[in-house]
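Final report, closing paragraph on structural work. Over the funding period we assembled a curated collection of sequence-structure pairs, and we close with a single example.
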Amino acid sequence: REDMKDKVFKGSTSYLLGEKTPVDSAAARHLVSLASGYSKDKPLYVVAIGAITNVASAVLLDPSICDKSVIVWLGGHALFWPDTREFNMFQDVAAARVIFTCPAPFVQLPCMGVVSAFNVSAPELKAYLIGANPLCTYLGQNTIDYMGGEDKFWSKTVWDVTAVAWLLNDGGRFMDEEIIHAPIPEYDDKYAANPNGKLMKYVRYIRRDRLFEDLFAKLKK
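Its predicted structure, as stored:
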């Protein structure tokens, strides 16, 4: 779509080859350019929901964006989880290490053990979403079909919504968080404690019912 070419930028074609070597891409360059228009007092919020390669590359291309950006990432597992072999993190551990150790303010939404609680079932989709409008029907039915139909017993985690929801979390409306010293993702699928690491926000609990209520209400508008 030609009308989207000024809004969508091609990202990395590989993962980081090392923690000091960026993968140059249009997306990383655009992020650097975008951050230049912000400041420490009015930062750019970067919400990432996949491998963090593009964002880490932007940090390596121009470390000054760390003073102008807040990075919010759905990645890794909870600190108590037995490993960090999470889809977004294990694809590019080097990039994750860049983000966990760079000076940029950082918010982590861990997958297993935290965001994994944000799941929905077929009866809920039928009761609260399907039939409300064409978009709601599409989203609800597509999810049911993807999970194998409404006759099977299942629940589906809706991962990516939570990263955006953090931006709306005034007063702990949708999730609880705490400030911790950032651990270091190691290459053996573990976190290493880092008592001298930067302070970061760590989401520890999702208010599942309250967030779905808000999401469904917005989709119905």
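The radius of gyration is 18 Å. The chain has a mean pLDDT of 97. We thank the funder for supporting this effort.
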